[in-house]
Amino acid sequence: MPHRINEKIKGVKEVRLVGENVEIGVYSIDEAMRIADNLELDLVEISPSAVPPVCKVIDYQKFLYQQKKREKERKANSTKIVVKEIRFGPQTDDHDFNFKLKHAQEFLKEGHKVKAYVFFKGRSILFKSQGETLLARFAQELEDLGKPDQLPQLEGKRMIITLSPKKTK
Prior knowledge:
Blueprint: E1 14-19, E2 25-28, H1 29-38, E3 42-47, E4 54-58, H2 60-77, E5 83-88, H3 94-109, E6 113-119, H4 128-141, E7 146-148, E8 153-155, E9 158-165
Parallel strand pairs: 1-4, 5-6
Antiparallel strand pairs: 1-2, 3-4, 6-9, 7-9, 8-9
């Protein structure tokens, strides 16, 4: 239970009282409890670190229900970022490039991030410039749907570029 309520509020002599149908001010803990009882509501400690602690006169079950509801809405509104990966070789030909480009366009339209990389095997690492050119062309073809997060970077045997979808209004 994250909040102390009613008799569980101990160790304080007075509290700052807030809430509907309550005159805001500093009251003794006994007076605050009496006000809450008269209104048939709960005394809930909202801010225990304040001096004096802030307590609110509310229906605690209703308060918890509204908190859960807000949390659920916040989770529903948060977007989950999905990263789709597309792999190229340093000598990828036009047909394969266009095929993978179509997939990347679909991913960006759906709102996913696209991580494209050129994988260098063995001595193909000598063709770094070809990989960089390929990824630059890839980013340029997709510039109307997504924007690159950074320039192509070499990480081990991979040259990577990440594209984020552009916001559509």
